[in-house]
From TrEMBL:
Subcellular location: Mitochondrion
Record-level GO cellular component terms: mitochondrion; ribonucleoprotein complex; ribosome
Family matches, as Gene3D superfamilies: 3.10.450.240
Family: Belongs to the mitochondrion-specific ribosomal protein mL45 family.
Keywords in alphabetical order: Mitochondrion, Ribonucleoprotein, Ribosomal protein, Transit peptide
Species: Macrosiphum euphorbiae
Chief localisation class: mitochondrion
UniProt cross-references to PROSITE patterns, sorted A to Z: PROKAR_LIPOPROTEIN
Alphabetical list of InterPro entries matching this protein: mtLSU_mL45, NTF2-like_dom_sf, Tim44-like_dom
SUPFAM superfamilies: NTF2-like (SSF54427)
UniProt-recorded name of the protein: Large ribosomal subunit protein mL45
Domain Tim44-like residues, every copy: 139-288
């Protein structure tokens, strides 16, 4: 019995050994028949160039950034920025600004009452001359400061001739509604005011002649933000003869006349950024004195409310019951 069992186990071991050998033989045969794919390139001499073609990019870790933002400690942020080689962001946003003109008229000139009508020989005219002489001190100080920045600046006749030329071109450009070239003759402040006044209207303007030669009556220089940023304003008095007619969008005359010429007295303020190398003189505004009577409002064409007028007309009709004549009983 023992021999038979031993014989059976011995036969089983031999069979298992034979199966293992057979599997090894089959595996070796399969491996020998197939070719393993290698990761090496077929041209190893360009290995360095191929490695330079690929860049390793470190992707941002949003979870760590979220933790850093919640735990806002300057030391951690400084360490992280230093590892990445970037400068820390500032809490404020800096934007470059350029101030091209002032937003208002500096110490506006106060025209004397009755200017252009009172004779200088009269008592009122003599008082006006004395007041002007008192105010001329600050004006000449401002002109002296302008000449410190512009050595070739001269009031007469260069500036006055230039001012009159700018005055004519600005009004001609406004009448033609040339918005692109208008900024060459007026500042941004005057640009908005002029376009607002001519919106939806048609203008006809012509310059006939100068009744009196234009002259400088006021000058001021001011600084904005810094003492080196200087702006100059010069007020010029124009006494001219012009024609002006304004038409609405339907072509109806609402102001002025094409035929009748009128005498116009204006105080025009010219401004320049004198510290700017490319600054130019432009119209900044006009001074309207307080003693001048207000102009009559122009008639404006509006759309009629037909329904409201119909209801008003119906209410105005007499009632039939009230209109009946009741005769007394005989």
């Amino acid at each position: 019995m023992f021999r038979s069992v031993h014989t059976v186990y011995t036969g089983l071991n031999k069979l298992q050994h034979l199966n293992c050998n057979l599997q090894n033989v089959l595996t070796i045969g399969c491996v020998g028949q197939t070719r393993c794919r290698s990761n090496k390139h077929y041209k190893p001499e360009f290995k360095k160039l191929r490695s330079q073609k690929v860049l390793k990019v470190e992707l941002p870790d949003y979870e760590n950034e979220k933790v850093d933002s919640e735990d806002y400690s300057p030391e951690k942020l400084r360490t992280r920025y230093k590892e990445k080689g970037i400068q820390p962001t500032r809490p404020w946003i800096e934007r470059t600004t350029f101030i091209n003109n002032t937003g208002s008229i500096i110490e506006p000139y106060v025209p004397p009452e009755g200017d252009g009508k009172i004779s200088p020989i009269s008592t009122a005219g003599a008082k006006q001359k004395i007041e002007l002489l008192k105010k001329k001190k600050e004006t000449w100080q401002a002109i002296r400061k302008i000449r410190q920045n512009e050595e070739e600046f001269e009031l007469y006749p260069e500036f006055i001739t230039k001012a009159q030329d700018i005055y004519l071109k600005a009004h001609t450009t406004m009448v033609n509604k040339d918005k692109q070239n208008l900024l060459q003759y007026v500042t941004e402040k005057a640009y908005v005011e002029m376009l607002h006044n001519i919106d939806g209207k048609t203008l006809r303007w012509s310059f006939i002649q100068s009744i009196e030669p234009p002259r400088v009556v006021h000058a001021r220089v001011t600084d904005i933000i810094t003492q080196d940023n200087l702006f100059a304003q010069i007020t010029v008095r124009f006494h001219t003869k012009q024609t002006l007619s304004v038409f609405d969008r339907f072509g109806r005359l609402i102001f002025g006349s094409d035929v009748v010429a009128k005498d116009v007295l204006e105080y025009v303020v010219f401004e320049k950024h004198i510290v700017n190398q490319y600054g130019i003189w432009r119209i900044h505004g006009k001074i309207i004195p307080d003693w001048m009577p207000p102009k009559e409002p122009a008639p404006i064409t509006n759309i009629l409310n037909v329904e409201a007028e119909t209801e008003t007309a119906l209410q105005a009709q007499p009632d039939e019951a009230k209109s009946k004549i009741v005769l007394p009983d005989a």
